[in-house]
Amino acid sequence: MPVSVKLPSQISSQIREEQIECNANSGTELAKEIALRYPQIRSYLFNSRAEIRDSLIFCVDNEIIGRDDRFPQGTVVEIMFAISGG
Known about the structure:
Ubiquitin-like (UB roll); 26% strand
């Protein structure tokens, strides 16, 4: 059973889907799968060194998780972007 992924508007507007399903067990795996499936949004997920952007946040059950924390199949994962300012 795949995980359901809720996408932020910056990404969903590019692929015209607000939620997708992926076969991943961590945020890192999730980002890689999404970038492979939708190469046009790769720059939203990864920096020029092919590292996950620091501003990318993964949430499960309304709690932020580490990008390498494991989550079970059937989970709903929400991707968000951190907001910074000064």
